[in-house]
Design a protein that fits this description.
The protein is an alpha+beta fold. It is 37% helix and 21% strand.
Length: 472
């Protein structure tokens, strides 16, 4: 069987205009978001329905063509980029972009895999509901990609990862069969949880084509604040106090080091440092109240009074309006942009048990500083769920490319060894893709890898579903 025969069959199945082979047309699909990986493909396939996806998978099986599923192509680990052989085909889910149903009584929305995350949020809001998944790429990432990587974001503390927000899936299997699991049930004890098997699998077991997602009531008020603290240990104590006082109203608790905010101010002059004096750590916290803004602000005032009295917080400022709240969140969201402006850096998306975060930062910072004096640590992330973006910027005045070439591998090993000692994960919310596959195989137990391989072989015996990702 030849590629030419495969492409002819694909054109017959979905239309010639939806089988892209011209380099100008395929280029946007072949390079990952960070421009770390660029692959080649025999074609980019653009089906419009789950049945068309199923037909293409059957053709791929017949012609032994590997498929690389892709959504918005906003992934950060190269999971949706083909290899360099030119033998694989990218299958883009962007045309599967229908909102099929909104059920306010069941608090669910059923959407196809190519629907943009921001569109899901908008449709939920129009129905008087909240879809709480929120992350920087929400204007371009797709629900299929969010599910494939089990995306996290800023609301995990209250609402959970994407897995916790999904009740049912529709999936095209590696054999081209369509499984309709769009049941929308909170309780279903009828066997293996196939839904959770496909979520987070990065398209290596099958292709997600639609999902039933949980909705929540819209909060009556959101109140945002910044709190300055002396250390990550103080931030953890403050988190415990906040959870005790606010309970389920706490929806965001983001940690940002002093250097993170200084970096934002350096490259985005309109974003001022929020306090008169420097502080080692700053926490951005948000409460979502179902009662009223007055109730939320009263709760905030009691929380801050207690935190200041107990010496946990050195200073604090509460947003007075939506504009100021947005400005607080902009500080947090511009940290990755400021890093990019500062130059290439070594990124880590890690998770450790929440109680270990302070010790992890202290020990790992010290080890990296000893190895490379003068490095600058850009540490920020979702403290409330144990996920840190633990990034390393080159010393001032050092060429960033040369720094990465020399130090990326040694620093990665330092960080990942420390994560492993603290019983953490080397990928918290970005997935493994092709970026971290070797490290994952190194740190996982042999039995864990064997079980993963058994699942992969059982569901995709021909290894045609996104090969070379997640698992070797």
């Amino acid at each position: 069987m030849t590629q030419a025969a495969f492409l002819t069959a694909c054109r017959n199945a979905i239309g010639a205009t939806q089988v892209l082979t011209d380099p100008h047309d395929t280029a946007p699909y072949l390079t990952d978001w960070r421009r770390r990986y660029t692959g080649a493909a025999c074609a980019v396939l653009c089906p419009a329905t789950p049945d068309e996806v199923a037909a293409l998978v059957k053709l791929a099986v017949e012609h032994r063509i590997a498929l690389v599923p892709q959504g918005g192509n906003t992934g950060l680990a190269g999971g949706a980029t083909p290899d360099a052989s030119g033998a694989q085909a990218v299958i883009s889910l962007r045309r599967l972009n229908r909102v099929r149903d909104i059920d306010p009584h069941n608090n669910t929305i059923t959407v196809e895999a190519g629907v943009i995350l921001a569109e899901v949020q908008r449709h939920a809001a129009e129905a008087g509901r909240l879809f709480p998944l929120s992350l920087a790429a929400e204007g371009s990432c797709t629900i299929g990609g969010n599910l494939a990587t089990n995306a996290g974001g800023t609301g995990v503390l209250r609402y959970g990862n994407t897995r916790e927000l999904c009740l049912g899936l529709e999936v095209v299997t590696a054999q081209g069969e369509l499984w309709d699991g769009l049941r929308g049930l909170r309780k279903d004890n009828t066997g293996y949880d196939l839904r959770d098997l496909f979520i987070g699998a990065e398209g290596t077991l099958g292709i997600i084509t639609a999902a039933v997602l949980k909705l929540h009531p819209q909060p009556a008020a959101r109140v945002t604040a910044l709190a300055a603290l002396a250390s990550p240990h103080a931030a953890l104590d403050f988190l415990s106090l906040t959870q005790r006082v606010a309970g389920p109203l706490l929806t965001g608790f983001e940690l940002m080091s002093d250097f993170c905010l200084r970096l934002v101010g350096r490259h985005f002059e309109q974003m001022r440092y929020p306090f008169a004096e420097p502080h080692a750590q700053v926490v951005l916290l948000e409460l979502s109240d179902s009662e009223s803004e007055e109730h939320a602000r009263g709760l905030f005032e009691r929380l801050m009074e207690t935190a200041l009295e107990e010496g946990l917080v050195e200073d604090a400022v509460v947003a007075e309006n939506l504009t100021q709240s947005r400005a607080f969140w902009n500080l947090r969201e511009h940290i990755p942009l400021a890093q990019a402006e500062e130059g290439l850096n070594i990124k880590h998306d890690i998770a450790v048990p929440i109680s270990r975060i302070g010790h992890f930062i202290e020990e790992t910072d010290a080890a990296i500083a000893q190895a490379v004096p003068g490095v600058r640590m850009v540490t920020f992330g979702h403290l409330g769920d144990g996920n840190l973006h633990y990034n390393v910027q080159a010393p001032e005045g050092v060429d960033a490319k040369a720094f990465l070439k020399t130090w990326q591998s040694p620093i990665n090993q330092l960080v990942y060894d420390s994560v492993h000692r603290h019983r953490g994960s080397i990928s918290a919310e970005h997935g493994l893709g092709q970026l971290k596959i070797d490290e994952a195989m190194h740190y996982k137990q042999d039995i864990e890898v064997q079980l993963m391989r058994a699942v992969k072989h059982a569901l995709d015996p021909l290894n045609l579903m996104n090969p070379g990702k997640v698992l070797r």
